[in-house]
Write a structure and sequence with these properties.
The chain is of the alpha+beta class and 886 residues long. Helix content is 21%, strand content 38%.
């Protein structure tokens, strides 16, 4: 039995089979109409006449489920019909039906699998239900009612939730009811909202948003939804006194109700009911829409089903202000968590066919998902972009299925006709089509700075070759709300003249498992890809491509017959980029071998670079391939002062994106807080390759840039905040400065603290342990502690979970035969930080010594080999700290 909860604006998307709309002579349709009449008349005594050979107890249970007390209307809707196994042709069917049953103030949807047949030669009236496969239900659908016949006067009414106090100092209150009781309030008048998040990290984000770590703001109205069982506990009813309704206040309450009630907990059932039906918030959950004078409408939610169950956001601007786990959640689960704890099922394999029109940005697709239940399921929830209209959902096991479209939430709910037991397998097939905007990859693209002076337009400027990329953020295929690794087959059909690169190894059409019997392919060119190694997500890019390169390389330095050491590399490029693409052959091979030598074999047997024209450089790297933006010769957009702009290292984006095959794809992050395990690692590995290919100067320049951006932006939050860094102010540079550059700098400091042997040995351990799995910072820390034998709690606490930077005072003394350097850590927090001391001799020679600072004060004597001219501190910019000479 499924009780729907915490959903936003659900929409029923169904189609009626043509054979269900046919003549009255259809015996199944006639039986279902008769059942509908019995249910609508409340004729419980006639209900058993619909069945034959079904036990009385089972019939009585079905009657209990279907005859709701006070029911005023029931709709019986046929969803699917197949021939009944064992019955003569035309004498029996297996049917899936949905029943929508409503009372004046509540409703439910029941899905049932029925075997319907007649005895041989029987007439129209001899058809009966001979077997039921089980009933599942979407329950808890309610009509909301704003009570305007009673108005309450409030004096210092307080409503409290975690870290939130709403006070209505003087005003009017109206109740919102369902059949179960009071489920909400509308507050009007002179009020104050006070929000003070407990976590330090969230207080920092609130300070960026409002200028203070506690948000205190007047409000004019508030709309509250709770479960009726929480009303007395949440609302101080003693602060309310009954008053005669004021027509002006009633109108205001109706306006607030009309504005805010459709935003959440709503099911639009379309053909089953034209009325608006609401879901009840689960117990202990709360949602408040607060109309403030300064910030517009702020939404506070407490949703216990979420891993981070406290949230404050601006719905209109899609801006998350605070998001964190409540104290109760932390006590129950601990500090660290994985999104996987919320996953109800695994997708084992995808098979997707799509007809793609890159010019119109449309696709018509059919996707087959092989699913294994992690828990008993009556509903399967999928993520799919809102613009994509689902025309049908079927399963091998159940036939055609009911699906609910969740509006504005990119969600589809599929209702099963019977409970799917834990560890059971299910195959879903969805047909869908629509227009989908290409995937934005701005976080890995340089951002434009100041525009250059006007100049003559290049003949190339107006002719940039377009490309169409759909990746994980586009939600172009149905996927688990909590995705995990899966294998896949992808078949993309594009217009003549276009090419395609996608997740997986290219395979011939004859060798690919196909859904061709389900999807009619038009004239066009098919491209088929198979991923036998698990993928985090699926992606493809379509453009006018020419194949420039294809070769198989051996990533190991030793002669080996191990196929895992062989990777097929290829380059596809827009026609004008062919020359640039040919120049990539050597660095691609060099980078792949370099990375494999550092941490282990390449995770995927092929890597294709898709070189596309763009105004700005950048890239994106799903499993098996990477897209690289290559600015056209006539691009007039200038970029500068960006965390990802590295002069003197033209292969930066290539090196960064190829590193993602290891970090981000083969090893994924377990929640958004851990994005640095992808981006910081890719950034550091690109820097390591820069050192190998371009030398120490370029590597040093990158370290200086890592430090500069870390110092400039660390006050915006810790690395562990992930995508939310810069989110409140829409400053993507902050995300790149900290998750990319500071994440890379932290890895370099850890390397210098532990030494190269331990550092790279720990990375290899981490990669092998977590390959094709999700990981968190605690997993990385464990690998380094096992290799080093050291406790690294303080290191990761300060550098990943904290945003404070160390302040160091130093003093140097030059003697005849040695140099003494003393460091003092200022401030209350103690950091583990390696600092480079560079001794410059009078003859120009230099000597570098790494001094690990792990105490409040550290003094070290460094022997010298001649007259010393100068002692420099942190000349290599490897330590992320502020230095002052004492």
């Amino acid at each position: 039995m499924f009780r729907a909860a915490a959903l936003l604006a659900c929409v029923l998307a169904s189609t009626t089979p043509a054979w269900a709309q046919t003549a009255a002579a259809d015996p199944v349709a006639a039986l279902l109409r008769r059942a509908e009449q019995i249910l609508n008349s409340g004729d419980r005594a006639s209900f058993p006449s619909l069945f034959f050979g079904v036990s009385a107890d089972e019939i009585e249970q079905h009657a209990f489920d279907l005859f709701m007390p006070g029911a005023v209307h029931t709709v019986v809707h046929e969803r699917d019909r197949t021939d009944l196994e064992g019955a003569p042709k035309g004498d029996g069917y297996r049917v899936v039906v949905e029943l929508f049953i409503e009372t004046p103030r509540r409703a439910k949807i029941v899905t049932a699998g029925l075997d319907i047949r007649r005895p041989p030669g029987g007439d129209l009236n001899s058809w009966h239900i001979v077997r039921t496969e089980g009933f599942t239900a979407v329950e808890g659908l309610f009509r909301l009612r704003l009570v305007t016949s009673t108005q309450y006067t409030a004096r210092d009414l307080e409503i409290r939730a975690e870290d939130l106090i709403i006070t209505l100092q003087d005003g009017a209150v109206f109740q919102i009811e369902t059949e179960e009781g009071v489920t909400g309030l509308i507050l009007l008048g002179r009020g104050e909202m006070r929000f003070a998040p407990t976590p330090e990290m969230e207080r920092g984000q609130l300070r960026i948003f409002s200028g203070s770590e506690t948000l205190v703001t007047p409000f004019e109205s508030a709309f509250l939804r709770i479960n009726p069982i929480d009303y007395q506990r949440t609302v101080t009813t003693s602060a309310l006194t009954t008053a005669a309704p004021d027509p002006r206040m009633v109108r205001r309450a109706q306006e607030v109700f009309a504005r805010d009630s459709p935003k959440s907990y709503v099911l639009d059932l379309q053909d089953l009911s034209r009325d608006t039906w609401h879901l009840q918030p689960p117990g202990n959950d709360m949602l408040v829409e607060i109309q403030t004078r300064r910030y517009g409408i702020l939404t506070y939610s407490r949703g216990n089903a979420q891993a981070e169950d406290v949230q404050l956001f601006q719905r209109d601007r899609r801006r998350t202000i605070a998001l964190y786990a409540s104290q109760a959640k932390l006590a129950a689960r601990g500090r660290f968590y994985s999104d996987d704890v919320l996953r109800e099922y695994d997708v084992i394999d995808y098979n997707i066919e799509a007809i793609v029109d890159p010019e119109r940005q449309t696709l018509h697709a059919r996707a087959r998902l092989a699913i294994r239940a992690r828990a008993s399921l009556s509903t399967v929830t999928l993520r799919l972009a809102d613009p994509l209209e689902v025309s049908s959902v079927t399963s091998v096991e159940f036939g055609r299925l009911l699906h609910l479209r969740v509006s504005n939430q990119n969600t589809v709910m599929v209702s099963l006709p019977r409970m799917l037991p834990q560890d059971s397998d299910l195959t879903l097939i969805l047909t869908y089509s629509g227009k989908v905007a290409p995937d934005p990859i701005e976080t890995e693209t340089l951002q434009p700075g100041q525009e250059p002076p006007p100049q003559a337009e290049s003949p190339f400027a107006a002719a940039r070759e377009p490309s169409y990329l759909l990746s994980n953020r586009a939600l172009w295929y149905p996927q688990n709300p909590v995705p995990d690794y899966a294998t896949a087959t992808i078949r993309i059909v594009v217009p003549e003249g276009y090419g395609c690169v996608a997740s997986g190894e290219p395979v011939s059409g004859a060798n690919a498992v196909s859904l061709r019997d389900l999807l009619t392919l038009p004239n066009g060119k098919p491209f088929v890809f198979r991923a036998n190694q698990p993928l985090r997500y699926l992606a493809f890019v379509v453009s006018r491509f020419d194949r420039v390169l294809e070769k198989t390389i051996v990533t190991s330095d030793e002669t080996t017959n191990d196929p895992s050491d062989r990777v097929t590399i290829a380059v596809e490029a827009n026609p004008r980029q062919r020359g640039r693409a040919r120049q990539l052959a050597r660095p691609i091979e060099d980078i792949m071998r370099f990375y494999a030598g550092l941490v282990g074999e390449a995770p995927y047997p092929s890597a294709t670079i898709a070189l596309v024209e763009s105004d700005l450089p950048g890239g994106h790297s799903p499993g098996y391939f990477a897209v690289l933006n290559d600015p056209t010769p006539g691009s007039t957009i200038a970029w500068r002062n960006d965390p990802a702009a590295f002069d003197g290292f033209g292969e930066f984006f290539l090196a960064h994106e190829l590193a993602h095959q290891w970090w981000g794809q083969a090893v994924a992050w377990k929640n958004y807080h851990e994005q640095w395990l992808s981006e910081g690692f890719a950034q550091y590995f690109a820097a390591l390759y820069a050192q190998k290919s371009r030398g120490d100067k370029v590597f040093g320049d990158m370290l200086r840039q890592f430090r500069r951006w870390s110092l400039a932006e660390s006050n915006q939050g810790p690395v562990h905040l992930g995508y939310r860094l810069g989110h409140i102010k829409s400053e993507t540079k902050v995300f790149r400065a900290l998750v990319y550059n500071k994440g890379a700098a932290v890895l370099h400091m850890l390397r210098r603290l532990l030494g190269d042997r331990v550092f790279f040995s720990a990375l290899r351990r981490f990669y092998q342990d977590r390959r094709f799995q999700k990981a968190g910072t605690e997993d990385l820390q464990r690998a380094f502690e096992l290799e080093s034998g050291r406790d690294l709690d303080r290191f990761f606490e300060r550098w990943i979970y904290g945003s404070t930077l160390p302040r160091l005072a130093y003093h140097t003394t030059i003697a005849d035969r040695d140099v003494t350097v003393r460091f003092d850590q200022l401030g209350g927090e103690l950091f583990d930080i390696p600092v480079t001391v560079t001794i410059v001799y009078s003859d120009g020679r230099t000597k570098e010594v790494i001094v690990p600072l792990t105490e409040k004060q550290v003094e070290q004597h460094i022997p010298t080999e001649g007259p010393v001219r100068q002692v420099q501190i942190n000349r290599d910019s490897a330590a992320i700290a502020e230095f002052t000479e004492s």
